[in-house]
Amino acid sequence: MSPATRKRGTFRDRAIRFAALGDDTRLSLVHRLSRESPLSISSLTAGSDVTRQAITKHLRVLEDAGLVRASRAGRESLYSLDAKSVERARIDLDEISRQWDSALLRLKAHVEK
Amino acid sequence: MSPATRKRGTFRDRAIRFAALGDDTRLSLVHRLSRESPLSISSLTAGSDVTRQAITKHLRVLEDAGLVRASRAGRESLYSLDAKSVERARIDLDEISRQWDSALLRLKAHVEK
DNA sequence: CTAATATGCAACCATTCGGTTGCATATCTT
DNA sequence: AAGATATGCAACCGAATGGTTGCATATTAG
Predict the structure, then answer these.
(1) Which of B11, B15, B89 is opposite residue A93, by nearest beta carbon?
(2) pTM (2 d.p.)
(3) CA B109 – C1' D16 distance (Å)?
(4) Residue B86 in contact with residue A100, Cβ under 8 Å?
């Protein structure tokens, strides 16, 4: 199933995003791309302690999660952050917080009754 | 290193939180706990399609990431969401978004100059 | 007391993951 | 054209993951 045809909002889809962020190398890539985009695979590899191939794989994971987009420019592959996808992850966390808050309110009301 | 003594804010620490959320079974546990806490392992297992042992392991992962806290009540282990930890994850995403926004502003300023 | 319930511990298994190395290919640069 | 640079592809490897089953133990209910 492609990202486009895949139904939105299942736990799996959301989990894939979080899983992509759930590795320190990838998280550091996301941070770099949030400060400067686009960046090539080589420049992303420079300043990392792993191989270019490892970085390539990580970028692929981020891309599959929709957190990052790639475009070819000559011999370089340039990666940019997809801010929308980061926002989607944030919204997921917001939902959890909201449900928690309202659960607390219900509990409080129940205790006071 | 215990969660308390571990230095805050490294990519690894943040990544561990996201990694804990990066599994659909665990994400669904977090969702349930955000609506109703505390819940026992048994009740969390009911309504899931995996074994109690699997759930136990997942809860342990969530607990190690600080997203959830356990307490014993008689023969039951009761798990609650730790809202602070969810908030911390949200803050991490906010930081990424903010850096992205300011990078965009810098780019815009540069182009207009 | 006895049976049922709730959990813990440990071993085991297949798959995924993060990483490497080696080689091929495409695109500049000179 | 030739060399340097940037990337892609594939095989391989050890460790971590997600899951199971079997058995032991503790607590509560009848």
Answers:
(1) B89
(2) 0.91
(3) 46
(4) yes
